[in-house]
Amino acid sequence: xxxxxxxxxxxxxxxxxVVTNRNVLSSIVASQIDLHAxxxxxxxxxxxxxxxxxxxxxxxxxxxxxxxAIADLDAIAVTCAPGLVGALLVGVMAAKTLALVHHLPLIxxxxxxxxxxxxxxxxxDLQPPLLALLVSGGHTSSIHVRAEGxxxxxxxxxxxxxxxxxxxxxxxxxxxxxxxxxxxxxxxxGNPKRFPLPEGKVxxxxxxxxxxxxxxxxxxxxxxxxxxxxxxxxxxxASFQATVARVLTAKAIACATDLQLPxxxxxxxxxxxxxxxxxxxxxxxxxxxxxxxxxxxxxTDNAAMIGAAAVAHCERGEISSLDLGVQSRLALEQIESxxxxxxxxxxxxx
Length: 350
Ligand code: KG4
Ligand code: ZN
Hints:
Blueprint: E1 3-8, E2 13-20, E3 23-31, H1 33-37, H2 44-66, E4 75-81, H3 85-101, E5 106-110, H4 111-122, E6 130-135, E7 140-147, E8 150-156, H5 162-172, H6 179-187, H7 211-226, H8 233-258, E9 263-267, H9 274-287, E10 290-292, H10 296-299, H11 304-315, H12 343-346
This protein binds 5'-O-[(R)-(carboxyoxy)(hydroxy)phosphoryl]adenosine (KG4) and zinc ion.
Residues 111, 115, 136, 268, 301 line the site of zinc ion (ZN).
């Protein structure tokens, strides 16, 4: 049973956690959202600087809340791809330093594999095969999880990620950043059928495209604004949200049905969306497919999910080298490249 300290700094959360198997002993997340809100989105350089200032206290808090000393750890895990390069580098340098100084194995983790493990943390008895639908500000991916460590990306966005579309439409409607929660709240009092909007044309059945939808909302807002009447923001928000939820649900159910996958894990920040959650749950129940939706603190970026993925690698003897690099993009199908050698040959005993 491996115990790992995990660090996550791929975007705008500085996070650290201590995880034993599928058991989270501590999970600390320092969000930078207020820092970036004034710019209407994440500014990479601002993110890196904030990670530098925060990573050490966050790690210290994760260890102290878990009641675990570094000497009790079996490995140090860190997100090394994909993400903002400067932001990833801060976490990777912190993890390498701890691994080197304390003679612990280093385990680089793919950020999306971490999101998949948020499903395993939520339902510890969940077993592959399953479909992971990962919807966040940076990703919209449908991943066929054949087995732990064996993934195939079967669908992705051709343009904007789902969360990005929520944020851009929120900006058009004069709502703050991040836009997803604001649209979700406003849509509750709106009519989702008032404005029919395009679902996005794609060649591949499991891919998505949200840029046409976003442009359609822009045109609609311009047309309505020209009338001089107050903008029906709640109806626009509800119509937009229903369209995104309908598209994502239909694609996930079609994909799980075609590939005969008995479970869907819905994760990423957009998994907080009330319309998407209820539509997917209803459609999956009708199709006889199980759905796992992690609690929000595990859906959004956190280090507990990175730690859970790392425990699995640790137990398979998949260890990274101390010259682990960071990559802004890396296909899930290529995660083997993160584990070149067995642990014993990398870290000499003190
Ligand atoms: O996973 P996450 O915290 O960060 C990354 O992008 O990695 O996801 C953030 C995204 C933002 O685009 C935000 O607008 C969206 O998740 N989001 C939501 C909701 N809560 C957060 N989108 C729709 N409905 C929500 N309730
Ligand atoms: Zn993420």
